[in-house]
Structures are given as C-alpha cells and as structure tokens.
Fold this protein.
Amino acid sequence: MHEFSVAGDIVENIIVEAQKHHAEKVTGVFLEIGQLMMVEIDQLRFALECLSKDTLLENANIHMETTPIVIKCINGHEEEVSWDPYKKPLELTCPVCKNTVKIIKGRECIIRKIVAE
Ligand SMILES: [Zn+2]
C-alpha cells in the first residue's frame, strides 16, 4: 500500500531528527501532506501508528494537514488549487489566462514540527 511507504519515510525522518536532538520520546508530530501525494489521511494515520510501534515515536500525537497544490503558468500567475483525486481529474491550465502551468507545490510531505522530550 502506498500509504505504508510514505509513512515509512516519515517515521524514519522523524526518528533521525529526534535522535539528532537527543530526544528520548516524541510526543507530537505536525505534518503537512501535499494533495498530490495522493494519500488517504486515515490510512496514513493507521500506517504511521503501526510503524511507530516500539520506536521513540510510539503513542505520539500525529497532526496532519493537507496542503493545496500550487500551480504557476508561463505568465507568472500563481494559483492555489484544491484537488480531490477521487472526484475529478486535475486541470492543468491557468484559471486566469488558460495557459499551461507547472506544478510548484503539492508533491511533498513536510514534517513541520516535532515535539519531543
Ligand atoms: Zn496565467
């Protein structure tokens, strides 16, 4: 399942980060999930909980927020678009001038904050 591979990376990064700061226990994690990651938030949460067992991340509060996709067209219009992959295809034209666009944000998963003891 896609969510498990995403969660695996997240857990690994958090543990590396926590160890850098000599944390003994992580109590909270704040994540930003780009909509183009195409993960189901509930499944991602489940995967994170499974994978954090027996690590210093066990029982941490996991806060997740999905972040919008940001596109930019050749004329420099930058727009935030919201996309539900289960409802409609992503339209890749500028809403202002209808030119083609580049995706500049939305593919990433950001660990915004780690609360540790
Ligand atoms: Zn435009």
